[in-house]
Amino acid sequence: MTTDDTRLSARDRLLASADQLFYREGVHTVGIDRIIEHAGVAKATLYNTFGSKDELVRAYLRSRHASTADRITGALQRYRTPRTRLLGVFDALGEIFADPDFHGCAFVSATSEAHGASVEQAAAEYRLWVRALLTELAEQAGARSPKTLAYQLHLLYDGASVSAGMDLDGRAADTARTAATVLLDAALAGPS
Amino acid sequence: MTTDDTRLSARDRLLASADQLFYREGVHTVGIDRIIEHAGVAKATLYNTFGSKDELVRAYLRSRHASTADRITGALQRYRTPRTRLLGVFDALGEIFADPDFHGCAFVSATSEAHGASVEQAAAEYRLWVRALLTELAEQAGARSPKTLAYQLHLLYDGASVSAGMDLDGRAADTARTAATVLLDAALAGPS
DNA sequence: CTATGATTAGACCGGTCGTTCTAGGAGGAT
DNA sequence: ATCCTCCTAGAACGACCGGTCTAATCATAG
To answer: Taking chain B (192 residues) in consecutive chunks of 10 residues, what is each chunk's mean pLDDT?
Structure first.
């Protein structure tokens, strides 16, 4: 089960192990020794590469941000209209939630566990990316107030992530998509 | 700053200290020593009273559940109509978020930090309570599908909690309430 | 061949963790 | 006054933490 793939550099193996273990068990619970054992790498190499555990956590969160963004933007390319692209965000969420290893947003978890500036900054950057994506899609879909709709959809986005991680109910993304449709339609209609 | 109030029993002082420290800094970060120092109580007393840290965490989460439920149901009594009561949940959330010490849902945080059956059970009970409350209010408000609306509002409830804890934006509860109004109205109208 | 720099395994450090244990003090009931 | 119960302070335990250090190994460039 270790990440012994020698084709990958030590840095990549460490990052892959950190990604798996930190997300699965938490950045606070998983110690340095677990990671180097899983990566098949010496402890000195970790410290030569990343300098500290905190920096490894930063790198882990940056990697999560990048892979999540890729996954979502990649999924959105299947859709041709602004409306389906906006709602497609929640279809992409559904695919992410379907992963049996999914158990909540990595940034929410990391913020709960580790109270440090680096984690908070990485989480803020991720959340700004989500908000910017939703705002852009809301604009293209013709929402009267794109920022307001984006904020509302961001609530559904986070809520679905929490529910998918904590409840024994696989319908979180579907329910969020249904609600998002209602909110979008309301944001398109003229002011009451 | 310690909870030396001798009018309270040792158990209550421990619980009050656990409530403050666990929520403020996390159940994993705060150690036994910090709690007994804050409560002004001997270590043996803690173990005679609760048996283990895990049991203290359970008691802390049960206490959180009870106080949050009291706070919300108490606030709801101000409202006279089913509609305002349902939307009043988000007004109550706004009051909770306004507490400068608020930084996210205690059950989400605890689940992220400690992976144990006791924490998961306490979180599940809390989430079932929220869902039941929203379902009941949705029924009374006349929603066509109370369970569906309750699920949607639960997403907003969790999303608002995440946003209020992580974003530098005090409008989470207001935005959730606005979205909830749209979803409620859509759930009242006849099928399109 | 040799020298350099990266990587290895693993001992080691000081500190913290949850938990147990010892030893004794305070106060009420008999 | 004696007992019993609850409480106190704090030492001690074994385990684990992040981080440093030593020393040996290996690949490659000169």
So the answer is: 59 95 96 95 95 96 98 98 98 97 97 94 98 98 98 98 96 98 91 53
Taking the C1' atom of every nucleotide in all shown strands and the CA of B28, the nearest one is: C17
Range of the domain at A106: 53-188
Number of folded domains in chain A?
Answer: 2
Do B159 and A157 lie within an 8 Å CB cutoff? Answer: yes
Judgement on whether residues B20 and B114 belong to the same structural domain of the protein: no
Shared domain for B46 and B109, answered yes or no, is no
Report the 10 Å Cβ neighbour count for B55.
14
Q: Is the CB of A43 under 7 A from strand D?
A: yes
pTM for the model: 0.94
d(CA B127, nearest CA chain A) in Å = 8
Sign of CA dihedral B134, B136, B139, B140: negative
Element (H, E) at B46: helix B43-49
What is the DSSP secondary structure assignment for residue B2, as one 8-state letter?
A: -
Residue A3 in this model has a pLDDT that exceeds 70: no
Contacts of B137-144 with C-beta under 8 Å, sequence gap 24+, read: B137/B82, B137/B85, B137/B86, B137/B89, B138/B86, B138/B184, B138/B187, B140/B82, B140/B85, B140/B86, B141/B82, B141/B83, B141/B85, B141/B86, B141/B184, B141/B188, B142/B82, B142/B188, B143/B184, B143/B187, B143/B188, B144/B187, B144/B188, B144/B191
Residues B8 and B29 sit within 8 Å (Cβ to Cβ): no
Structure tokens at A86: 């906006």
- Closest to B179 in 3D by CA, of B144, B154, B146, B145: B154
